[in-house]
Records
---
Amino acid sequence: MKTSVPEPMEKAFSKAKKMVETAEDIKIYSHIDCDGITAGAIISTMLERMDKEHEVEFISLDKIDQLKLENDLTIFSDLGSGQATEKLSTSSSNILILDHHPSLRGRDFNYSNIQGKFLEINPLFYGINGSHEISGGGMAYLLARKFGYSDLSWMGVLSGVGDMQNSLSGKLEGLNSMILQESIQEGQIKSINDLAIYGRQTRPLFVALSYFGDVHLPITNNKTESILLLNKLGIEKKNKKEHRKLCDLSSDEKGKLFSELVKMLSREVPQRYIKHIPKLVLADSYEFLNEEPYTPLRDASEFSTAVNACSRNKRADVALNILKGDRITALDEMDILSKDHRRYLAQKIEVIENEDMIISMENLQYFEGNGIKSEVIGTIAGMILSYGDWKKPIIGFTQISDENNDIKVSLRCSRLLAYDGIHFGHIIRNVAEKVGGSGGGHSVACGAYLPADRKEDFLKLFNQCLNNKLST
Ligand SMILES: [Mn+2]
């Protein structure tokens, strides 16, 4: 795995730098998710420092085909590789793509028919994996770094975490780790090997523990059991009046909790998964030292959730302002959006759970998300997994939007299934294509779009594909 930028890739970034320097005005289209918004923030901050006229717009992938390019330079960030962006080129508008998703063109594409300048930089062209070695924000940072802005590296780290690039190994690897090191050198981040429990800075520990969901444990969705566990280990629940958070624990206390979680997990999982247990419990955490302790901005993983809360409520602008430094107005707005977001998720999950809406098939389980906003169907699938059978993947369905009754599908599963060698991102792509849709994504978190009437076929095929693949 490469932990420095290969020479030919550096050269491509040098060309990109020139394109930026010579452009009069620049438009940035970036993906509307945590990675894409952070990428947009990096590029926008960079251009602002250079006094370059520019505008950032966050879009979803299906909007790209209809774009009309009017600026000297258009930068596609965290998207553009998987779309026919070369068709948008005109003689007066140059295109720069900084993406990490699979490219339709590849490195040897013949650009001779394209009128303007067209430069696509994609890690896959240089043998670098785009799902765990570098994110869209990472690619944006590699450009900013060419201009000497290594203080933007913390956003490169945030985008890697937001894109779940560290989710399987528990740490940032490859070029992500290079970006992390630069950020540590800048004094912006502290990285520690930590317990893999979400909510380090803001959730009372017993609440955080109750969300442990990769494998169903007695503490899962059970705050009483979580409190009992802490009592048993002699871990204080409060500092004076405040509930303690994971970040308050001593390494001795974390050690006790680690051993206990490993013990509990060993009781629950089939033999062939046992060797993977430590990976479920340990992960590096990234703390932003310039942010206030006990706020969601202090921890990379909580920060990325807050950015997602904005984007899923179509308020990417709020997240952008925070990333660019607003800690006053935008922070209040983000707070409200996050609360609304959590409330919305909790309500939907309660309905699914109370009305027994999880339907089990031989190799998978699914639920009908009728009415759930398509932006959050994945988040809900991930949360609902802990109420179902963790040994099978869970699939959620919902309508794409009020105007479009095609189906959005999201799949989530325990990381144990991925450690066991299953890549659901690949499976869902194949199955979706067979029923006239499209799909893809990570091994444990992926999705697809399907024609409105093909849900049953999709389920049947998917279930068949998994025959003999899961441990029971
Ligand atoms: Mn991305």
---
Amino acid sequence: MKLYLIILVLAVVFAAGRSGGTEIVEGAPVLIKRVEPAAELLNAVGYLGDLRMGDLNGDGKVEFVLVRSTGGGMKPCELAAFDLDGRELWYVGSPGRQPSRPASLALHDIDGDGADEVIHFFVDPAQSKTVPAQSMADVSIQIRDGRTGKLLREASPPELRRASGKDSDWLHQRLIVANFRGNSRPRDFLVKLGPDLLAFTDELKVLWTYKIAWTEYGRHTSYTPAVGDMDGDGRDEVNGGFYILRPDGTPRWSGEIGEHMDSVIITAWDNGNIRAICSGYGHVLDRDGGVILKLGRELVPHGQEVRVADFLPDSEGPEMIIRHQGHRPDVIVVTNKGEIAHRFSLNSSPNETGMEAIYWNGLRKTALLYNGGVLWNGDGRRFADLPGLPQPIGQVKMGWYHAIPANVFGDEREEVVLYNPWDRYIWIYGPSSSGQFKGYKAGSRQYNARIMD
Ligand SMILES: [Ca+2]
Ligand SMILES: [Ca+2]
Ligand SMILES: [Ca+2]
Ligand SMILES: [Ca+2]
């Protein structure tokens, strides 16, 4: 507690210095905590690798699990759990290298007992010598007890083992928590393995599979599909940009509607209607693929990232911020009436990705946009630089600060949890606050954090 206070005071002093020595404005960012995992968890590589957060023991405080991989970064071989003070909770596997991100790891309370389980792929080193990186023949899916790391379930069904793919379409094997069966809480999950979508139950049974028809670079579907209930029946649909699937994996619609379908969402858009948001050419679709909005190729030649939140206080409902020219800092802000409200350039970050909506002022208030260590207002005014955050280290364009929005300290406003996979620290920034923290509660913004597209 003492150390925490010292860090807080230092951060406040630093923030004051950055803003020219004037007094701290309400909501100005402060570094609440910098987490450094115990040295033995960094192994010889000295960096985190990919990371997820959750409540592994149900005590209302956040813990972390890091993952490193083999097989060209695609096959997790090492997991380590640690708490906010960097203390090791458990470790399994053998030393790996930097995983391709987002790695196949999700923290979610799949059995509803208040503590998160760890769902992940894991390679069998005995088999991996003969299996190429573009194959899953040596990989199993596992569920572990978050408290101890103990293996609860493991499966290696033929649908997983025979999956293979190529090029960038094979990367980004994110596990996405979903509710396909209409349970009282999400107990299923989804993964895209190149051209194959696989849906699993909490028993690790394959619920369904779907074969994607588009796999060429620039013309393939979203790296990470999105899940959400588009018709209000309590079961999630899937949006992959070129397809919308029913909860049983059959298509409601499919079609090639734009190049560079890098980023997709299912969320409320116009008058509370739940829509499929698709970055390629800036599309908003209804649940049958009907076009609600199309910004078009001229405006959005390469829709790299799209985020939807209430970014503008004077415009009713949510807006879309879309990074519209690929790996560049240019964004446009579009209202749910289809009007372009603002165009501006974000600060540059090494990979020119990683923007995220942050409910910095509270969940029902205007959101900010995080990008590369800076918080932006939706109208293009720079809100604040996060004080004390060093320049990212790591390989060219690969070392940058990945963001998870979460309420972990202070009052009920969201903080931003940052990590660079090539560095050793986790940085938690929040609005300066004297409010009461009522405990961490995970939602889809944490267990299905975007991190990157
Ligand atoms: Ca905890
Ligand atoms: Ca649990
Ligand atoms: Ca539904
Ligand atoms: Ca908070």
